[in-house]
Amino acid sequence: MALSRSACAIPQYLSLLVISFLALHQASPSYASDTISPNRSLSGRQNLTSAGGQFVLGFFAPSASSKNYYVGIWYNKISLLTAVWVANREIPVTDTSTSELKISDDGNLVLLDQSKGIIWSTGTRIPSNSTVAVILDDGNLQLRDETNSSQVFWQSFDHPSDTWLPRDKLGLNKATNQLQHLTAWKNKADPAPGIFSLEIDPNGTSQYYIIWNMSQIYWTSGVWNGHIFNLVPEMTKNYIYDFQFVNSSTETYFNYTVKNDSIISRFVLDYATGQIQQLTWMENLKSWMLFWSQPRQQCLVYAICGPFGSCNDISKPFCKCIEGFSVKNQTEWDLGDQSGGCERKTQLNCGRDSSGNSETDDVFFPLSNIKPPDNSQILATVGSDEDCELACLNNCSCTAYSYNATGCFVWHGALLNLQDQYGSDGSTLYLRLAASELQSSRSKKGVVTWIIVGVVVVVVACLAIIQWRRRSRRMIRKSKAVGGTMVPFDYRELQRATNNFSHKLGGGGFGSVFKGSLPDSTVIAVKKLEGLHQGEKQFRTEVSTIGTIQHVNLVRLLGFCSEGSRKLLVYEFMPKGSLDTQLFHSDSTALDWKTRYQIAVGTARGLAYLHEQCRDCIIHCDIKPENIVLDASFVPKVADFGLAKLVGRDFSRVLTTMRGTRGYLAPEWITGVAITAKADVYSYGMMLFEIISGRRNLEQTEGGIAGYFPKLVATRLVADGVESLLDPRLGGEANLEEVERACKLACWCIQDGESCRPTMGQVVQVLEGFLDASMPPIPRSILLAETPEDIRFFYELSSKQSSQSRSNASSSPQTDSTKSNGSGV
Ligand SMILES: *[C@@H]1O[C@H](CO)[C@@H](O)[C@H](O)[C@H]1NC(C)=O
Ligand SMILES: *[C@@H]1O[C@H](CO)[C@@H](O)[C@H](O)[C@H]1NC(C)=O
Ligand SMILES: *[C@@H]1O[C@H](CO)[C@@H](O)[C@H](O)[C@H]1NC(C)=O
Ligand SMILES: *[C@@H]1O[C@H](CO)[C@@H](O)[C@H](O)[C@H]1NC(C)=O
Ligand SMILES: *[C@@H]1O[C@H](CO)[C@@H](O)[C@H](O)[C@H]1NC(C)=O
Ligand SMILES: *[C@@H]1O[C@H](CO)[C@@H](O)[C@H](O)[C@H]1NC(C)=O
Ligand SMILES: *[C@@H]1O[C@H](CO)[C@@H](O)[C@H](O)[C@H]1NC(C)=O
Ligand SMILES: *[C@@H]1O[C@H](CO)[C@@H](O)[C@H](O)[C@H]1NC(C)=O
Ligand SMILES: *[C@@H]1O[C@H](CO)[C@@H](O)[C@H](O)[C@H]1NC(C)=O
Ligand SMILES: *[C@@H]1O[C@H](CO)[C@@H](O)[C@H](O)[C@H]1NC(C)=O
Ligand SMILES: *[C@@H]1O[C@H](CO)[C@@H](O)[C@H](O)[C@H]1NC(C)=O
Ligand SMILES: *[C@@H]1O[C@H](CO)[C@@H](O)[C@H](O)[C@H]1NC(C)=O
Fold first, then answer.
1. 594 partner at 20 to 30 Å CA-CA among 4, 74, 364, 465?
2. Where does ATP bind (predicted)?
């Protein structure tokens, strides 16, 4: 297995646009032309190329195995066939050599199938008797008068498929009342209009909507305030794009241009995710890179997993069927269309028995931590859990119920928009299943449960024996320290131990750290927490959870003190201090390469443990050299973990209290997407660069910015080798293979798209040499940083965000949209 570009840069769901091309050669000579005229039609493998050679019009097949062909427009200069427009979306042709795209007698452009029947037409009234169809360099196909090119009767830009190209207007023509909308493909292999569409509000406001099945609006851009759309402030003019909103008496539309012509960029409404995505072609990687998408959270897309499907923003794939259900049409799921959802494995008995009295055959299965579907019905008269269950049981169309303090809620028919692992906001939904279904799954579960119980009993017994032996060998150092559990300290005790907090070791995001020593001369580090607004109970719960997390690469929490507002944590003391002092301070001797590599590996192991092996995934949120401390033999230990919050699933709430540090913050902190463990991977990547170079990534001088190390790596990795990237203090003393591996890995870690970044577990494997890192794509946010201003732009964004978050730290959680700040593009 390899960490490869193919796994990343072309996410599976994008591959619809990557269409295999008919690699057949044309027998007849090609016309060097961009025009279909009355005496020249198109069929077979013929194609038209726009005058400047940007776009091609012709027949294509959506996949290599497909026998269906479509007339479409695709990019001429890129190697992956990517259709931006399709004419006959719904009716494919099977034989291109006998099909024909031609100007018909009434002047329209028509597509004739093998039996010469019209299967697609521009279908407009043409006041001229001589028209031509021309493919233009911006990807627009125009049907116009042969002699007067400004008389345009029809153009593909007015009828977009799923792609919004630069210069294409997306809006409303008030004169003709014509609305341009994007409609996603049905699936990877079928360009027919799918279930998601995007359009401007037909009622005349300036907001754009993404709509499910032409009925449910699940995303809006917010209204145009004259400068930006309220809810997507990042979609604005910047040094790469020019966006423009126009409202005149005849039309309302939005259009954009890419300032640098050599950048190939498009927006597409994706069939698999229901998101509007902005993609840019990376020639050196031969792939499209995802750069921006909305809605940010996958599970906000309406019915994305279909009936009885459950969505999870973090898992991959994000859809699964709930208990007792299985995928309805696997072929469609595999093609990226989950809208069909799931079906019962065992039919319900209710209503099938002619006696009409078969309630006893259905049972309820509790789904916990679920975000229930929206369309619930409240049964006001029902006052208890049992009655609620009975009320549901007595109506055969009732599929689920939930009882809580507000009352009894029931659902009828298909369940849509379920989300699992919804954390503390979730509720328990009782799902109606056939009794036989539950029995079979219970018996399986029962066996598993007993095995687990057995294993746990054995493990506990072993631990107890070990513990007992240890105890009998050693004296318990401190009367309160019982069996490795955490020690509660008195404030005065710690005051004495730290000599009244006189020896400050450092200040972190959560408070200052002081050195101290216990009466038995154990050296400790005491952290005085600041700005905690937690209740006593919650504090103790969280602290004891942190205390149970033990790993050789995580700082060990020994005890705590909680007396009113005085909250302190007691850690083991690390004699070599934090990594930043070892790396950046000129008076310290430079760490040799071997040590640096071990620090990189150890830190990665500690983080992998936090992310993957703890009971709840813990996202550190503030990885930087200051938070990595070193013991006497330079073994790295991650500090401050778990303080941000113990995170189960919904990270958006955490964001408001986050204190990430600029320069290490992943783009999703800025753009407002839900934070996952991949945000730590990003910060780790940034730190890895600093471990390699021995310098801060951004070197600021009085005159401005001297260099941006990640960009240097990204460019030199390709060009002139990695030796030049190494900390000069090492004098070239390093395993260059390891240096290269670390450089590539760091580039992978700082990819803009979370899904492109490796997991911390993969990072460990790469560093240990068990997994190969291929050449990474250059992250766009870094690649596009051309001038010092650009670099500062990307860099400063993160500080804006973090200071904004800080000022809001105590207020109620913000919504995704208001978190976005400034232009993220
Ligand atoms: C267009 O057709 C010509 C020959 O007719 C072929 O050489 C060329 O590759 C085709 N271009 C595309 C983009 O298919
Ligand atoms: C098609 O007709 C146009 C005039 O309508 C003429 O100029 C052109 O040469 C013709 N092309 C061919 C291939 O016959
Ligand atoms: C249509 O074409 C004929 C000649 O082919 C010409 O005499 C006539 O004026 C044209 N009509 C229009 C409406 O252009
Ligand atoms: C071409 O068409 C445009 C728009 O219909 C019109 O304004 C212009 O006069 C026409 N030019 C000629 C030469 O007919
Ligand atoms: C447009 O207005 C009509 C009538 O006021 C309303 O029923 C409909 O929901 C509105 N549509 C949208 C998309 O807001
Ligand atoms: C566009 O302008 C008209 C007046 O010219 C105004 O009534 C309308 O509200 C505007 N529409 C939007 C979407 O701003
Ligand atoms: C979409 O809407 C149509 C009618 O409006 C309905 O027949 C169809 O079942 C809906 N599709 C889904 C997947 O619900
Ligand atoms: C949008 O379209 C109008 C009219 O075609 C054009 O003048 C303007 O330059 C376009 N704006 C951008 C940003 O492309
Ligand atoms: C446009 O982008 C290309 C490739 O990124 C770059 O080489 C070129 O200098 C840019 N041109 C301008 C005018 O910025
Ligand atoms: C599954 O979906 C595919 C593609 O839409 C369709 O051809 C096939 O008949 C479906 N299979 C079943 C069992 O419904
Ligand atoms: C079951 O519930 C549905 C929806 O509330 C209702 O229309 C129907 O009449 C109920 N059936 C019975 C038998 O109560
Ligand atoms: C009870 O459940 C309903 C339906 O899921 C939900 O809307 C409501 O907020 C819940 N009430 C409480 C107090 O949790």
1. 4
2. 528
Token readout for 783 is: 């690649």
Cα 48 to Cα 31, 799, 824, distances in angstroms: 8, 49, 37
The mean per-residue pLDDT over the stretch 77-83 comes to 93
Report how far ligand 1's centroid is from the alpha carbon of 161 (Å).
23
Ligand 6 center from residue 253 Cα (angstroms): 11
Which ligand is the nearest neighbour of the Cα of 783?
9
User: Best substitution site from 374, 404, 409, 418 to test ligand 12's pocket, by max atoms within 8 Å of Cβ?
Assistant: 404
Type of residue found at 708: Y
More confident residue, 582 or 661: 582
CB distance 375 to 411 below 8 Å: yes
Q: Which residue in the list 622, 680, 752, 790 is annotated as catalytic?
A: 622
| Residue-wise pLDDT tens digits, 699-743 | 666 655 556 677 777 666 656 667 778 888 888 889 988 998 898
Cα 454 to its chain centre, rounded Å, is 39
* DSSP structure class, residue 239: S
| Domains of the chain in sequence order | 21-159 (2.90.10.10), 298-450 (no CATH), 476-572 (3.30.200.20), 590-810 (1.10.510.10)
The answer to whether the CB of 413 is under 6 A from ligand 7 is: no
Pocket of ligand 8 (CB under 6 A): 167, 242, 244, 255-257
Q: Among all chains, which residue has been given the structure tokens 């949120």?
A: 621
Tell me if 528 is assigned to a ligand binding site: yes
Cβ–ligand 6 distance for 294 under 6 Å, the answer: no
Point out the ligand 1 atom lying closest to the alpha carbon of residue 29: 5
Question: What single-letter DSSP state applies at residue 423?
Answer: G
- In degrees, to the nearest 5, what angle opens at C-alpha 521 toward C-alphas 518 and 523? 70
* Inter-residue contact 304 to 337 (CB < 8 Å): no
Residues contacting residue 361 through CB under 8 Å, at least 6 positions apart:
348, 349, 350, 353, 434, 435
Question: Residue 630's closest CA among 684, 685, 555?
Answer: 555
CB 42 within 8 A of CB 100: yes
Is there a contact between 779 and 794 (Cβ–Cβ < 8 Å)? no
Residue 809 in contact with residue 653, Cβ under 8 Å? no
Work out which ligand 10 atom sits closest to the CA atom of 332: 2
Cα–Cα dist 368/648, whole Å: 14
Confirm if 200 and 124 have CB atoms less than 8 A apart. no
Q: What is the mean pLDDT of the chain?
A: 79
Q: Which of 785, 709, 721 is nearest to 747 (CA)?
A: 709
Overall average pLDDT of the 147-160 stretch: 95
- For a ligand 5 pocket test, name from 199, 203, 213 the mutation site with the most ligand atoms within 8 angstroms of its C-beta: 203
Annotation says 622 is catalytic? yes
31 lines ligand 2 (CB under 6 A): no
Nearest CA to ligand 9 atom 7: 262
Instruction: Find out whether the peptide bond into 758 is cis, omega within 30 degrees of 0.
Output: no
